[in-house]
Design brief:
By secondary structure, the protein is of the alpha/beta class. It is built from 18 helices and 18 strands. β8 and β9 form a beta hairpin. The chain starts with a strand and ends with a helix.
């Protein structure tokens, strides 16, 4: 039987790519073919081999990605495929025999691969009146990628629901799930991405938000303990002193996406290493994102036993250190205080803006000021701040009003910004770094908290002890040219 040979149009159809993308791959030599006269021809075996061995070649640029979407939508339109028709239920994002399924699966694959290559932290699918907008959060900022038609958007959301084991027929209330993608099956790169997905009904359809975590990157960071968490030398010394405490309460606070969980897991790794693996460390987590060797991790299910019940159970396990991912009720707060008072180190995450708010948060959960003061040993508050792009960085002179307001003790202040370039997608920023507010609670600070009337007294002593707020740390980064004043004001209070 003769070897099957495709012309260019048939090859494009077979590969499910756009014509410009096909042309670039052919010109670069990635795609092998031969000429008959002036016309390109391709053996089917070569096309199959290319798809199987292309590796990172299938990580599309934004331009290729947008062209692929256009191609897919045109194909769906030509085939007159009804919206909402059945899609095979499977977690395998590569296999399908039906042409429509292939098109939508390819679109989903390219959605993820493009976001991975752009180092996006989140994917947003936002339904609008005229279509579905794809947006990526890159380096802390949301960027518009492409508008899909309503029909293609609906099909894509159905596909994502299947991948996350969600019910595609439920469109009138919230659903949450998880998608795991191992990129070695697609690109050859040995990495795993855990993607949390939330679907919520809005006025023009369903809004989808997906949070992306590279498990290999997270693992590499956590395995280094506290050393790779972007602490300044001064902050790192303070943080190590905090987590070297033998007992008491340590709080880690910050806004969503500020890296609290990574800090907490880095601290647990530090403690495990410091004790030579002899500490009994146990965790309660709403979602176990980072499996850690030598640590007993317990996932808390909202439809099962809660934090309070599980904490009672943990106390029968002879723990040395306990990490609690959420404290939102008085019973759990009371249990934590009892554990801290009985010779255990307990680390908790709190959803607060800064250290001062976290102290008030514990009081609002019903803990008496004297009790909060007696158990608190240390606290960390953190943010992620975007860094100025080094490729387009330029010096600017602030107005006298800005200088007087934010730099009253300085003259001839020079600041920096990014003009915007291709390297930073014209954002002026490239990469992020952490800023941290740290505190060790000594007798004087504890007495200020125990007074229980005026948090300002606590703030005053905080400054007298040489501790500095997030805002002050952020301003330091502005003056040193790491970030802009606008960014510093955005992430700090």
């Amino acid at each position: 039987m003769a070897e099957e040979i495709f012309d260019a149009d048939q090859a494009i159809e077979f590969l499910k790519i756009s014509r410009p993308t096909f042309a670039r791959w052919l010109k670069s030599g990635k795609l092998q073919g031969f000429k008959v006269g002036k016309q390109w021809r391709f053996y089917r075996r070569d096309l199959v081999s290319f798809m199987e061995s292309s590796g990172t070649d299938f990580v599309l640029s934004k331009k290729d990605f947008k062209e692929s979407i256009k191609f897919f939508e045109e194909k769906l339109e030509r085939k007159n495929i009804p919206v909402g028709s059945d899609i095979e239920t499977t977690k395998d994002i590569i296999t399908s025999s039906d042409e429509k399924d292939v098109l939508i699966k390819n679109l989903a694959d390219r959605l993820f691969l493009d976001s991975f290559s752009d180092k996006a932290s989140d994917i947003h699918l936002e339904p609008l009146k005229d279509g579905l907008m794809i947006r990526y959060r890159i380096k802390g900022s949301l960027e518009d990628i492409k508008m899909l038609s309503n029909e293609t958007g609906e099909e894509l959301i159905i596909r994502l629901k299947h991948m996350a084991d969600l019910d595609p027929d439920i469109t009138d209330h919230v659903q949450t799930g998880k998608i795991i993608i191992e990129t070695d099956k697609i690109t050859g790169d040995d990495n795993r991405f855990d993607i949390k997905i939330g679907v919520i009904p809005v006025i023009y359809g369903e809004r989808v938000t997906m949070s992306i975590k590279s498990m290999e990157k997270a693992k590499a960071t956590i395995e280094q303990g506290l050393e790779l968490l972007q602490f300044s030398r001064e902050d790192l010394e303070t943080v190590k002193k905090i987590f070297n405490k033998a007992f008491g309460l340590v709080i880690v606070t910050g806004t969503s996406g500020s890296g609290k969980t990574t800090t907490c897991h880095g601290a647990l790794k530090h403690i495990l290493t410091k004790t030579g693996g002899h500490a009994n460390i146990m965790t309660l987590e709403g979602s176990i994102e980072y499996p850690m060797k030598g640590i007993s991790q317990i996932q808390v299910h909202h439809d099962g036993e809660g934090y309070y019940e599980l904490l009672k159970g943990i106390m029968w396990q002879d723990p040395d250190v306990i990490f609690v991912g959420e404290v939102s009720d008085s019973k759990t707060a009371t249990m934590i205080s009892e554990i801290a008072l009985t010779g255990h180190l307990i680390i908790v995450q709190l959803p607060c803006a800064d250290i001062f708010q976290s102290v008030e948060y514990l009081k609002n959960l019903g803990l008496e000021p004297y009790l909060v003061a007696s158990i608190l040993e240390g606290a960390i508050s953190q943010r992620l701040v975007r860094k100025i792009c080094k490729n387009c960085k330029e010096k600017i002179t602030p107005s006298p009003d800005v200088t007087e307001k934010y730099f009253p003790d300085r003259k001839n202040v020079s600041l920096f910004r990014g003009k915007g370039c291709s390297e930073c997608h014209n954002s002026g920023y490239a990469g992020r770094t952490g800023i941290y507010e740290t505190c060790i609670f000594d007798t004087e600070l504890k007495e200020a908290i125990a007074d229980g009337e005026d948090i300002n007294k606590f703030k005053k002593i905080f400054h007298e002890k040489g501790f500095r707020t997030l805002r002050e740390k952020a301003i330091d980064y502005v003056l040193s040219g790491v970030t802009t004043l606008e960014e510093a004001l955005r992430v700090s209070y």
